[in-house]
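Meet our chain:
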Amino acid sequence: MAKTGLVLDTRFERHETGYGHPERPERLRAIADALGACGLTHACARIEATPIDMELVRRNHDADYLECLRRWCESGRPLGDMPDTGICTESFEIARLAAGGVVNAVDDVMGGEIDNAFCAVRPPGHHAERNRSMGFCLFNNVAIAARRLLEDQGLSRVLILDWDVHHGNGTQHSFDDDPRVLYVSLHGHPGILYPGTGYAHERGRGAGEGFTINVPILPPGADDVWRAAFDDSILPAVERFAPQFVLISAGFDAHRLDPLGPLELETGSFGWMTDVLVDVARRQCGGRLVSVLEGGYHLQALADCTCLHVERLLAA
């Protein structure tokens, strides 16, 4: 039995964002071609992307926002409620498939069918707020999966580690008052990079205070800076939290070649971070880990990083 699951579906390419948009269907084609060429597609257990039950989405998103988004897509409107979020007539249903694939992956891990999974989905999710789209994101795939684990699978401690170069404002705001989720984000400094949130002083609120950890990184933000952040602040907090499940918002736009990120990570650092989180999952929660694609806009760098990421998941 393959121990690593893979969500990868050509239907995700039907989410059209408009001419020149960086979050484009070619991203998924590059990933699919690279995983196939490396033999990794066949090494993984395929996980079907099925339309998510909208009740699960409404746990994390306002019903009025979802209805507006559905109408906007069906009408052929080219943008959501923010000018950076391109949509088409099929985008709402493709977003349902993406979130459904991620939920299927966490269910399969919880059921013991696989040990871990990578979900190569689009549209991405970590910028989507409760009541609006943002930053190319429609549904917050990782946040919806976390709620599935907490509300249906009986867990009480879920780690979300977000290494996208842009801060995951939507995920942070989904859980900033919830001590059941430790949200950790390494990202480019919000003083110079979208979306302008994710300062170190943002640590959650109320019962969730201290369960948000932001590590903003100034350029050039090379490999040694990211590794030091794990050693100095992230891993001690994760060990204290003792997660029962690890979710990764896996953006690959901190790579030195990425056109939307000013940081300088080499491909190997994404393998190193994968190894670190696989080790956390092995020691803390029986290896249970699901990784979900967020950003990454240089096609070759994205292909190289996802291949390495999946290789390391398979080697867990």
